[in-house]
Write a structure and sequence with these properties.
- The protein folds into 2 domains: about 160 residues, Multidrug-efflux Transporter Regulator, Chain: A, Domain 2; about 120 residues, Cobalamin-binding domain (Rossmann fold), CATH 3.40.50.280.
- It is built from 13 helices and 7 strands.
- The chain has a 5-stranded parallel sheet with strand order 4-3-5-6-7, with helices on both faces. It has a two-stranded antiparallel sheet with strand order 1-2.
């Protein structure tokens, strides 16, 4: 069983920790355990409950009403939500629940059904990317078992690779982008997602993958002369220093425009060289792709 903090519940549900504490006191549908030092922690079941409650509350159900529902009624109301965004969020929540339960067959079935109905790009942008964004913080803080991370990542990776291999477009953009992850960074999903977006829009791509030494990147840059470098940082690996990494990028590739996105980029506030751009949101990433 996983153990989640109240901050984890806030990140995954969108409900502020202060509000979660109030709900606990008033409605009793969450019953956290406590450590020896009296710190709250929550089980898989509590996480599932807060995800469902938060979804219903967001789409019009009063918390006082939800507090009187049993689990079957909550599930019935969630399935009755007709808003498109609500349906997407429900599927993302189901994927999170599959992950904590290690129900990989159901997780893969959910993804396959959505891909078959809506196509790989919609699955990536509307389901997979929001799902990976939500659970990314759990990976960084080690609040899920590494086995869960590996199982989920491998399934999503397979879907992305199938999507990339299946790209057929008549579009051609006269730009080339080299994509890579630095040494120690193995979280490849975000970079594969970017690879798909670029390839599907006719942009020339050079995909080096994960855990690539900068000297190897430099060799390819000198040989192929790409217009951009693209890096997606999720965890950065042990002893990763963002400032030092940006300095090294500046020293080796000051002549190449460099884009950096990902979980680590969200909170980066230091000064950056003129040729480096930090993309902190999915919207900014899509604007970059559309502007090529």
């Amino acid at each position: 069983m996983n153990i989640f903090t109240i901050k984890d519940l806030e990140n995954l549900s969108g409900i502020k920790a202060h509000t979660i504490r109030i709900w606990e006191q008033r409605y009793q549908f969450l019953k956290p355990s406590r450590t020896d030092t009296n710190i709250r922690y929550y089980s898989n079941d509590e996480l599932k409950k807060i995800l469902n409650i938060a979804l219903l509350n967001k789409y019009g159900f009063k918390i006082s009403h939800i507090g009187k529902m049993n689990e079957g009624e909550v599930r019935e109301r969630i399935l009755s939500l007709t808003q498109v965004q609500a349906q997407h969020e429900r599927i993302v929540n189901e994927l999170i629940q599959c992950m904590v339960d290690l129900d990989m067959d159901k997780l893969e079935l959910i993804l396959d059904n959505y891909i078959q109905a809506r196509g790989i790009e919609r699955a990536i942008t509307q389901i997979i990317f929001p799902f990976m964004e939500k659970i990314g913080i759990l990976w960084i803080t080690n609040h899920i078992n590494p086995a869960q991370e590996h199982l989920v990542t491998n399934i999503v990776r397979q879907k992305l690779i199938v999507g990339i291999e299946g790209v057929a477009t008549s579009l051609r953009v006269n730009k080339t982008i080299l994509l890579f992850l630095p040494e120690g960074e193995y979280h490849e999903i975000g970079l594969l997602f970017m690879y798909y977006l670029l390839k599907s829009r006719g942009v020339g791509t050079i995909y080096l993958g994960a855990n690539v030494p900068l000297n190897d990147v430099e060799y390819v840059v000198n040989l192929k002369k790409p217009d951009y470098l693209y890096i997606h940082l999720t965890a950065g690996g042990h002893n990763f220093n963002f400032n030092k990494f940006v300095d090294n990028i500046n020293k080796k590739f000051s002549h190449v425009k460099t884009m950096i996105s990902g979980q680590l980029a969200h909170s980066y506030e230091q000064k950056i060289p003129p040729h480096v751009t930090i993309k902190k949101t999915f919207t900014e990433v899509m604007e970059f792709v559309s502007g090529l």
